[in-house]
Amino acid sequence: MKTNLLKKLLLPSAMLVPLAVVAAQQTPNVIVIFMDDMGYGDIGTTGAIGYETPNLDKMAAEGMRFTRFYAAQAVCTASRVGLLTGCYPNRIGYSGALGPSSRIGLGEKEETIADVLRKKGYATAAFGKWHIGHLPHALPPRHGFDEYYGIPYSNDMWPRHPTRKFPDLPLIEGDKTIELNPDQSQFTTNFTNRALQFIDKNKNKPFFLYLAHPMPHVPLAVSEKFKGKSRQGLYGDVIMEIDWSVGQILDKLRREGLEENTLVVVTSDNGPWLNYGNHAGTTGGLREGKGTSFEGGQRVPCIMQWKGTIPAATICNKLSSTLDLLPTFAHIAGAPLPPHKIDGVNIISLLRHEPDANPRESFCYYYRKNNLEAVTDGNFKLIFPHPHRTYEGFAPGVDGKPGPVNEKAKLEIPLLYDLRRDPGERYNVIGQYPEVRAKLEQIAAAIREDIGDDLTGVVGKNNRSPSIAPR
């Protein structure tokens, strides 16, 4: 024992520190890979049929899969605002999906994940779909990102839209348009390659990478290397290429020795656009889809990997949301939170799989301008009467053509669902659990006082406005 102690004393002090500890002491990198309209059931581990997602499945086997993870809202722009700011989008004046005529952007005092992490010296980049405002004051370079290469809004907002008229779709580098109506079959490959170049350039310092794929939002497009590869037609081909993209990122981290120092999050902005039929994904049995506050609209797939911190092959059944990413990333980077109120909570305890951890005790389902449509405590969900979209009762479209959808449906009575037993929201148990209803009503009353609720006419005390570009 004395000999071993003498050897330890003679070794250089750096050699006494285990490599894992050295890695843990470095500032962690953060990568968010954000899909567009990918449904809860669209990956192998949640039941995808007709194609394989080996990289996402491997990521789940080596990391953590979340089963009750929610997008901030069930529509493109609002969802992305929630992810990047940690705020319910209606708190800061965002709703719906912005188009080419919009003039709004994040308020000057709002901070994105990129803003927060740059305070700790992070290199930051956004590649792919932005959709938080297309004018210069609203683009990523004004909101914490060192690099941006992508499209400013949804890939269907271009002249070839099947039912509406749009101007040319710009491809933007920084804040300059470099091409109009680019070849969408190259989107997944090109944005992935830019992400790999960014990692290579910044592998020796902390970085935040936001890779927001425009797919599988319609119009679907895929490169030649995956065209015709699935048994689910073009949609399956597109998901297989997205899976390839995830694999490219994870392989790059492994080759560079960055796996134990990088948290990778893969999730989606909302559920599938069901009336597009075979060009849409699946909710895996959840009710309704994109554009609704039913589970199929807002419960989304989520996988996280951070080797050495997130235990391998773990399942998280606790309530969590894209709102929680900003405060969690700030925690692991040692960065201060924004000075104003946000709605996300730090979920690092879930990532570490700590027993009895439950950082998020409730989630509020907002839609339209400021409608509080439902609340949940993670077990039960109380749904309030509200107008809503429904896909039920209509035959979906085929091969890129949308089928009909009822945008004027109306729920007339409150509903209570036990999500543990009934994630498909089919059996109203409101009469059986008066104490649960009362608890959820209290949660609703608190958020109404804070942010407001157009359905009940309550004006919130803590709403903030976006910036408006001058004409």
From TrEMBL:
<dbReference type="Pfam" id="PF00884">
    <property type="entry name" value="Sulfatase"/>
</dbReference>
<feature type="domain" description="Sulfatase N-terminal">
    <location>
        <begin position="28"/>
        <end position="334"/>
    </location>
</feature>
<keyword id="KW-0378">Hydrolase</keyword>
<comment type="similarity">
    <text>Belongs to the sulfatase family.</text>
</comment>
<dbReference type="InterPro" id="IPR050738">
    <property type="entry name" value="Sulfatase"/>
</dbReference>
<keyword id="KW-0732">Signal</keyword>
<dbReference type="Pfam" id="PF14707">
    <property type="entry name" value="Sulfatase_C"/>
</dbReference>
<dbReference type="InterPro" id="IPR017850">
    <property type="entry name" value="Alkaline_phosphatase_core_sf"/>
</dbReference>
<dbReference type="InterPro" id="IPR000917">
    <property type="entry name" value="Sulfatase_N"/>
</dbReference>
<dbReference type="GO" id="GO:0004065">
    <property type="term" value="F:arylsulfatase activity"/>
</dbReference>
<feature type="signal peptide">
    <location>
        <begin position="1"/>
        <end position="23"/>
    </location>
</feature>
<protein>
    <submittedName>
        <fullName>Arylsulfatase</fullName>
    </submittedName>
</protein>
